[in-house]
Amino acid sequence: MISGKKAEETGAFNVNRLKEFVPSVQFYSSTPRNTSLSIRGLGSTYGLTNDGLDPGVGFYVDGVYYARPAATTLDFVDIERIEVLRGPQGTLFGKNTTAGTFNVTTKQPSFTTGGTAEISYGNYGFIQAKASVTGAITDKLANRFSASGTHRDGTIYNSRNNQELNNIISDLGYTLPAIDPFNRTVDTDTPWRAEQDMGGLALNVEYNLGKGKITSTSAWRFWNWNPSNDRDFTGLSALAKSQAPSKHQQWNQEIRWSGNFNEKLSGVFGVFGIWQRLRAGKDGQIEEAGKDQWRFSLSSANQTVIDQWKTPGLLDGYGIKSYPNLNSFSGAVFGQLDWAFTEKLSLLPGIRINYDKKEIDFRRITYGGLQTDNAALNAIKNSVYSNQEFNAAIDDTNFSGQLTLAYKPTKNYNLFGTFSTGFKPVGLNLGGLPTNNGRVMTELAVVKPERILHYEIGLKSQPLKNLIFNLTVYNSNIRDYQVQVQAADLSINRGYLANAERVRVRGIETDISYTFNNFYFFTNLAYTEAIYKKFTNAAPALEDTGGANYVDISGGVLPGVSKWAGSTGGELNFAGKFLNYSGDYFFALDSYYRSTFSSSPTPSKFLNIPGYALFNTRFGFRVRQSVTTYVWVRNIFNRDYFEQLLPGAGNAGHYAAVLGDPRTFGLTIKVSF
Fold it and tell me: What is the pTM for the complete model shown?
């Protein structure tokens, strides 16, 4: 668990920052929509998001499940604590997940009037303001109002109007504006936009009943997404537009009872349901080629064929509009017991029965390009984009559960062993399907459920008064692992979902913290081995584009997972005075390290990200129960590093990078009252 105070003081105001303190968490986001959150290498598909798949890591705020991964990109506001639960979940509350849960709890209203106000300034035009006020409305009703706003300029310069074209792609007479990606210069010719609007209503009701408590959580949420992307990542007019506006709504209802049956037996029982609906924007989801796309799609050395591809206007403005419609329901009955059959030994069995139903209706139509009766030219256009229509409906019932044996030899030591099963529900491809000789491969519309067998043993301890030491060893075997496939077919630019037969993830995690008077120290380390045990029908690697359509990558590593990841840091504070105010000076240093990892679902020698270490610091003065002022620096040594490497649309052998932030620095002033 991470307290809201620690997250606030360290500048971990979103999941991306928070992952630096929980090294078994992986978080990637090229846009809010294309966000993946994983724990121990499992959870979300890597790269682009497919809306027909459920996340494997649950994200909750005050008991409400957020179905859209984009929600994890938002800043935390007025946080009390953040819990990261690892391994399959579903017998205690909420939605079933295979990899774990982020459980965010905000501060509750207080009848005592108080509040905070905070302002931060930094380089790259960074401005962040936060405010929170709480107090009594009547003697039985209190409220809390919180607000947060953040602005920062980008770290990439678009030199579109300042570069001449020359000869890196000789057929197109084009050169990149910079060879070194850390020049942070691009010349994309389509505006970039990541506009999202989300909100909702939630009602939590608690009622004491007998020796327990009934909790009801009701919620409605919406998410509207309106993007604009240049998916060839260059100044060329190749894949000129990639815009997938979406409108999503969800309705949640959960009712659970938790309490004691007697002195030795307690439990939790409940029901959970979520209804979801997703639609495209009113004008559909758009992919549009330009006049240069012929060079990326060309796969023939025949001069006649080349001349046909180069026909003026053939692909200029040629595109598709897709209209995906998804309706889904997931309902469950769950429960877990805690039986303390001796003072030192406890048994915790849990079970979940889950029913899932999904329906998809997908329609895609072509538009634009050269209007012609020439059969050869129309065949070329159809090889780039074609009309497509299919629908599918599926329902499925699954059983999952867990059994934990806990042994507490003394009050400072707790040993445990857990066996659990979990699953991700059946998936539906919502971004279009690949074709084979002109035939839509509708057999790929449905993706089988992902099933996991998980074993874990661990120790939670406090061997000394001020020392905490935790150790966990785990092994997860996954069958029908749901993976995103990036194919060379431009018409499925976002890729499609498939199943890898078997995956294994295993590892060791340690957490150590020590507090002594005015000094606090922590270190966390995670070793993770995540491999495809069997995946015989994977897409080829980037360097094998143009070869076999499918390859066997059994034994390869999963994307986005470093074998080694860790964080270490501490804070030193001492009493003093500043401008006649008594308080504490403090100095803190945090570091985060991860080793090399693959950035492609199919391992590629071009898409491996080297390991890196980041160092952050802050120092300032804290007036007790009043004003705190501090200076902060992130990425002290201005380390260049990649967050992701992504194949270009159509997988024509080119790729783009998501860069980590350069050194940033600023000043924060916080007032409490």
Answer: 0.90
